[in-house]
Amino acid sequence: MTWALHRWIWQLDGPLYVGAPPAGSLNRARLYVPARALWGAVTAELARLEGTDQPKYDAVGSEVHEQTRFTYLYPAEHSEKGWYAWLPEYREGDGRVWLPIAGVRRPAAAQTERRFRSRLLSTRPGTAMDPSNDAADVGSLRETECIQTRWRQNDGSVGSAVAMVGFVFTRDETIKRRLDRVEVLFLGGDSRYGLGRMRRIAFDGAEQIFGLSVERGTQDPQVRTQRVLAHAEATTMRGDLECLVGWDYQKPGKVQKVADPLWMPGSEGTSDAVWSLLPDGTWKLAERPA
């Protein structure tokens, strides 16, 4: 069996909030979309498109889980040459920086995490209401970071539209045709309030993932790289660790989490390695080159 690889581009029609651990009263946002969140949004949209009065979310989710592998989505900026994505990279002494990738790496254009967030994010205030007096609940004032629909230029002016770029592996033509029907997604938090609407503007065949070579003839597709572009399981790397936690809706009140912390996107090993793309979107070290 050989996986087929496709590159898709989603343009933001509304602000996008994919939560990260908060900082005080600030609900922080990730600058990328994890594959698990993408899987949930695609499952929901497919189930509604293909279902009747009662969409079969569980069945569709299992099929998508088995028949596809998603990469993370990363923010992309538009130029006269097309869309180019920004990817994270860990650098000793600087921490995580962001690099524009347009087929060829341009390290000189790296931006610090703080600078990059200032170009992409803004905040939305919010509070909970006390129904007994129709006033703001004490201590509930908060702000939520969101990826905006337009880039902010270095001089503060409005730049191009914001898109999210990633790749998807499919097992056969059937699941590819099903995914091709999904043209709009509602992704991330607070989607019922208008956040997270994304419109697909490209869905094309591809040979590489962000310029990285891939192996498509294995049980799980594999990619060779020194720098991981998803949460990854490995022993020793340079970068940041994070323990992923999420709700398991099959067990009300329960929390599902990864047993051990994973290396965050942008972390690096000492040399190129081969990584397997697992069904949940994380990467696992498959082997090291001789």
Total helical segments = 4
CATH hierarchy class name: Alpha Beta
Mean pLDDT: 88
Secondary structure category: mainly beta
DSSP helix fraction: 10-25%
Q: What does the largest sheet look like?
A: 9 strands, antiparallel
Tally of strands:
25
Fold blueprint:
Elements: E1 4-12, E2 26-27, H1 35-50, H2 57-67, E3 68-70, E4 74-79, E5 82-91, E6 95-101, E7 111-112, H3 113-120, E8 121-126, E9 129-130, E10 135-136, E11 142-147, E12 150-152, E13 158-161, E14 163-170, H4 173-180, E15 184-186, E16 197-205, E17 214-215, E18 222-227, E19 232-233, E20 241-242, E21 245-247, E22 255-257, E23 262-263, E24 268-277, E25 283-287
Parallel strand pairs: 2-11, 19-25
Antiparallel strand pairs: 1-14, 1-16, 3-14, 4-5, 4-14, 5-6, 6-7, 8-11, 9-10, 12-13, 15-16, 17-18, 18-24, 20-23, 21-22, 24-25
Explained architecture:
- The chain is mainly beta and 290 residues long.
- The chain has one domain (4-287): Alpha-Beta Plaits.
- 15% of the residues lie in helices and 40% in strands.
- The strands form seven sheets. Strands 1, 3, 4, 5, 6, 7, 14, 15 and 16 form a nine-stranded antiparallel beta sheet that branches.
- Helix 1 (35-50) crosses helix 2 (57-67).
- The longest helix is centred in the N-terminal third of the chain and has 16 residues, at 35-50.
- It starts with a strand and ends with a strand.
- The model has no long low-confidence stretch (mean pLDDT 88).
